[in-house]
Amino acid sequence: MKKVLMILVPILLLGAVGAGLVMSGIVKTPWTSKKKVSAKIADTKKITLPKQAEAARVVAKKPVPRPTMDPALGTAKIAKVWNEVPSDKLIAMWSQWKDPELAVVLAKMDSDKVSEILGKLDPIRASALSRAMQKQASIIAPESTKS
Questions:
Q1: How confident is the model at residue 8 (pLDDT cuts 50, 70, 90)?
Q2: For a 10 Å CB count at each end of the chain, is N or C smaller?
Q3: Which of 110, 109, 100, 91 is nearest to 134 (CA)?
Q4: What pTM was estimated for this model as a whole?
């Protein structure tokens, strides 16, 4: 009995592996054509999804809208925060900011706080910031130009 199993098991395994290679088209034989093998492979790849799954797949393809940015809102919020920060810390922090960017926020801050900070700054930088703030203050918003 053991001898029969020792002979039959390898033969069956080799036959199964060989049949799989022939059916997948990896091994070419004269009795299988490419069309038959291709048709069998194509049939196995056809998977039908339920209508709900198909609808979910269509919904998932819609692009996600990007959030819109409102620079005026961001400027107002940072100005509100900076009004509460001590002047010395603001001056140290502002060394990384460009004057035109800083002027936009300074225009929204409390005027007493801005005057206190400008008094502590280097006169050349304070003058440059004042000019930049003047330019920002003279810009007319697009909404106010409508008649």
A1: confident
A2: C
A3: 100
A4: 0.50
Distances (CA, A) of 146 to 88, 141, 143: 42, 10, 6
- Nearest Cα residue to 106 out of 121, 55, 60, 22: 121
The predicted-structure confidence for 10-63, as pLDDT tens digits, reads as follows 888 888 877 777 777 777 776 665 555 555 655 555 555 556 555 555 555 667
What is the C-alpha end-to-end distance of the chain, expressed in Å? 103
Residue count (the chain) = 147
Spatial contact of 121 and 95, defined as CB atoms under 8 Å apart: no
Helices (DSSP H) in the chain: which residue ranges?
2-24, 34-45, 51-60, 71-82, 87-93, 99-108, 111-120, 123-137
Question: Can you tell me which residue has the tokens 């100005």?
Answer: 79
DSSP assignment letter at 30:
T
